[in-house]
Specification:
315 residues, alpha/beta, UDP-N-acetylmuramoyl-L-alanine:D-glutamate ligase, eight-stranded mixed beta sheet, five-stranded mixed beta sheet
Length: 315
Amino acid sequence: MNKKILGIGNAIVDVLAKVDDEFLIKNNLIKGSMKLINKSEFDNLEKNIRIEKIVAGGSVANTMAGIAYLKGAPSFIGKVNSDKFGDLYKKSLEDINVKFPYIKKDESLPTGTSIILITPDSERTMCTYLGVSSYLSAGDISANNILDHEMIFLEGYLWDKGASEKMFKHAINIAKQNNIKIAMSLSDIFCVTRHKQDFYDLLKNDLNILIGNENEINELTGKKNLLDSINQLKEFNKIIVITRSDKGSLAIKDNEIVNCESIKVDKVLDLTGAGDLFAAGFLKEYLDKSDIKKCLTTGSITASKIIQKIGARLE
């Protein structure tokens, strides 16, 4: 019987497009960053790109899609409107066996959308119009949504608004009362900068597993190098998973450090979803009670597969 996992995050429709570096400069975009934009900025960008692909996205939703690909049992909750993009979102997940128990309602804001600009060097630059997605509230998640899962997986991006913070705590409390494990991704370095103390407290008090890349982890601890960060985080007695691009990955568990090599690939096409798919491999193995080394290895394999494709789906 597959162990079930519930992802809770921003429900964002991904719109993928290839652009050159000039396009980023012209639009004042920092390569590799995630910028929040408003509706008119979104409409303006959309007019000036050639869309390659449209798919249900959002960091944790990508992770749940990866777990479905690995034959796990994922569900996802994110807030969408009952509009065209909202319908597309639900169908896009259900088509790949990710359950989407969120009940759509008519909202004043449209479903969230992210324009993902892929430059020739495979870097992705995201311009995200959050729409209704960032208004996921405690009222959108019932105890029943959480109860029959082994784990919930939250995304750091969601911490950005008051109602979302309450929702986070609501989900965490239900999980804690029912011995359901709690994992979280740090999402983005700017996100960590904004909420450093809150994330640190979450790690200390609530989380079982934290996943982040080297820069995000150093930002969280306020250290300049990874070794200092690791030494500081060891005392937490949590599982902390750190990805390091082509330098591989590592996990801190029970005061020990487990290292894993990265997997060499011939050609990187698009880095979209590399971290999300790493998390999918890691969490799926963790739910299957594999040892930490195997969790890291499967994470590396799934990440290596996704960077050889356009987009964040392994189908």
